[in-house]
Specification:
Strand order of the largest sheet: 1-2-5
Number of helices: 2
Helix content: 10-25%
Low-confidence stretches: none
Number of strands: 5
Number of domains: 1
Structural class: alpha+beta
Mean pLDDT: 76
Shape: flat
Order of helices and strands: EHHEEEE
Distance between the termini: 21 Å
């Protein structure tokens, strides 16, 4: 019997190791575990990060690429919580961190 869906626990890629004293996350360590997660397209052509890694300007991280290839290989839905890295400009956006990288947490399935 094969599973149809596999849900990974939060922090399974190791980012929870970046928790400092008193349970405070250290941004410089957390960002090291992040990946660029593209916005989902609502119309064709749809891109699969496994099939189009680095093709036609597609840019996403190795974690998303690897998870997508595992899901494809085993024909299963994988739900993984990733730290999404999105470039921003502190000069344009007052909420942008000084390192120029917003890092929301997102579920990818």
């Amino acid at each position: 019997m094969q599973a149809d869906i596999v849900v990974f626990p939060e922090g399974c890629n190791g980012w929870m190791q970046a928790v400092g004293a008193g349970g405070v996350y250290q941004r410089n360590q957390v960002v090291a575990y992040g990946d660029f997660v593209p916005h989902v397209q609502s119309s064709p052509p749809y891109l699969n990060p496994c099939d189009s890694y680095g093709v036609d300007g597609a840019r996403w991280g190795v974690q998303l690429h690897n998870v997508s290839c595992l899901a494809k290989k085993y024909r299963v839905v994988l739900v993984v919580n990733l730290i999404d890295l999105q470039p921003c400009s502190p000069l344009v956006d007052a909420n942008c961190p000084p390192d120029g990288m917003c890092s929301p947490s997102c579920a990818v399935d």
